[in-house]
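Researcher: Next entry in the queue.
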Amino acid sequence: MAGTLNCRWRAVNRVRSTAVFYNVVVKSYDVIIVGGGIIGLSLAIALRKGGARVLVVEKGEPGREASHAAAGMLVDCGVETPAAFQPLATASARMYPEFVHELEDDSGIRVDLRSEGTILFSSTRQGQ
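Model: Structure for this entry, 128 residues:
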């Protein structure tokens, strides 16, 4: 998916026997994406399919930050969705199943996509 980082590591300082390293990048990239969650990785896939050389930089394990906290839920319009974002959110939710099927075809891994819907609760009779 993303390009492989070819690098050399050099120790530049030692403090209390802890080595501090910096990275010398040998390969160049067209795009460097910071964040390996659903958005960063999806963007990387699309860019790679378009021929771009892509590097994804993630501080931890890909998909284990905000994407993991969302628990795989995709809600197009919730009570906190600003009105200006609702058309984009609705269009994204409609496109998502096709995106998932494309990922399954490309990776050979089945995604447990469910479309049972979402229930929103109201704290008052007026729905506010």
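Model: The chain has two domains: 1-70, 73-128.
Researcher: Noted, moving on.
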